[in-house]
Amino acid sequence: MRNYKYIHRRKFLTGLIKWVKLGLWGAILYPAFAFVVHKVPRLPVRIRVRTTPGENDILTESDFFLFPDIKSPRAISRRCTHLGCRINYSREKKLFICPCHDSRYTLDGRVVRGPAKKDLQEFPLTFSKEDGYIVELDDNA
Length: 141
Hints:
four-stranded antiparallel sheet, 11 strands
């Protein structure tokens, strides 16, 4: 009879130790897994532009182009949608041209010639007399 209780107690303690080990491994690995997998959303970056482009001028910043349209000024990304190269503006051709793979975009940001398949991103733009233009760059800029 004594031997029977000893066997059950031993099985119980062995099983309990296995579950405690499993719990400890989970407590160690879960934060590491959550750290690797979890992405923290970034807040949009607001850039203040105090200079005002003329009617036919295009203001080139490091992350975007700011230029007037017939209705209102617009801010368009300088990041090529193919591989992320920084695009340039060609005054002669009136196109945005990627120097890496020669993707071409219209002044509206639409793809004219690939390898890029997506249009350029347009950023939200506000204007006030005190602050000038404020461009909101999001995570994709």
